[in-house]
Amino acid sequence: MKIDPERFLSDLHHLRTFGAAGVGKGVVRPAFSQADVAARRWLAGRMGEAGLRVELDAMGNLFGLAEGPSLLMGSHSDSQPEGGWLDGALGVIAALEVARAAKEAGGPAISVVSFQDEEGRFGGLTGSSVWSGHTPLAKADGAAAYDGVSLREARAAVADMVTGEVDPSQFTGFIELHIEQGLTLDAAGERIGVVTEIVGTREIPVTFVGQQNHAGTTQMHLRRDAFQGLSAFNGLLNDRLRNVVTPTTVWTIGHLEVHPNASSIVPGRVSFSMQWRDGDADRLRRMEQIVRETAAEVAAEWGLEVSFGPMWELEPVAMDVRLRGALEEAAEEVAPGRWRKMPSGALHDATNVARLMPVAMLFVPSIGGISHDFAEDTEEADLVAGLEVLAGAALRLN
Ligand code: GLV
Ligand code: MN
Ligand code: MN
């Protein structure tokens, strides 16, 4: 099998033209946006040209299938609302190149997937969650993006491409190449990370409701200011979490809506996302308790009501030893002494696919550790090293 780094890089740069935005190599290609749909149509064409059978399921997951039992490779091609050109795209295009080279060589059998909505416009890892049977499509359909569009409405954009459900039993395993999205490899001058496990995640929508009022006439001691509640919650939570976390535990308030969001109105309502991640399920539970208790305490103190939406949960997942072994051998061949085993703090579709089959992952460095930002980038030599390790693993698992 002879992979072609130039063909791979050319396809990767072409994928970036769908939704290219911002400075550098940024993209804006959220699930089912015009750019995402156009990218999916182009990818389907490239898969067909590679001799793969193109299928799209009702959720919008795009597959390029080899004949008979095959090893599945891929990632996602949707992006964050402000994303980089490699997050997800790298794994899809590298899989396409390995599958194409394998087809040309007469084997091994490699199939390709681009999952839909990994970045969570309608939840989180939505496409792989539905495909793995974890979330029924009818339930996912009810989810609405922040702009009010429901998944059911959004899916209509690819209705003409849908071929039907794709049977997971035809795949012998799944390997996902991804950028690290952190600083570990770049800081160490290493070229490949072979993932040991993917951390678990919890996320709850939280709302504080107080009393909307006039910002000039409402005395401070009479206010029930929902934003002040959030501010107090954040400070107290940071203090309390410090007692239970490790240096790799993370927590984020990333989405925030202040109502009515006007400079002369005491905010009557704030809604925000409370997310936390760790490799230990017990710690995730303990953190949940602290989040809920702290919010309730702050609400009582500030005269607010607090409510919690449904919690999104993903358990920590270990990578398959056999698939991982193939990646480790290939990494040592491609980058001798310049690779490591490491956990993933970012979420990946592999977490959901692990419900169906053995999975493994590998990383290439992110320059400066930047991702989920237009500035995200990786040296082209490292992108190619990742492709080579992926191909090396495919041959070893044949
Ligand atoms: C996926 O991009 C994540 O949030 O880790
Ligand atoms: Mn991402
Ligand atoms: Mn990703």
Give a nutshell description of this structure.
This protein has 12 helices and 16 strands. It has 398 residues and is α+β, with helices and mostly antiparallel strands.
Can you walk through the features of this model?
This protein is an alpha+beta fold and 398 residues long. It has 12 helices and 16 strands. The protein has helices at 5-16, 34-49, 89-105, 126-131, 137-141, 151-155, 184-188, 226-241, 281-302, 321-334, 349-353, 380-396; strands at 53-56, 62-65, 70-76, 110-115, 171-179, 192-198, 200-209, 213-214, 250-259, 265-266, 269-278, 305-308, 312-314, 317-318, 339-344, 359-364. Strands 1, 2, 3, 4, 5, 6, 14, 15 and 16 form a 9-stranded mixed β-sheet that branches. Helix 3 (89-105) links the parallel strand 3 (70-76) and strand 4 (110-115). Helix 1 (5-16) packs antiparallel against helix 3 (89-105) and helix 8 (226-241) packs antiparallel against helix 9. The radius of gyration is 22 Å and the shape is globular. The structure holds glyoxylic acid and manganese (II) ion (2 copies). One manganese (II) ion (MN) binds next to loops.
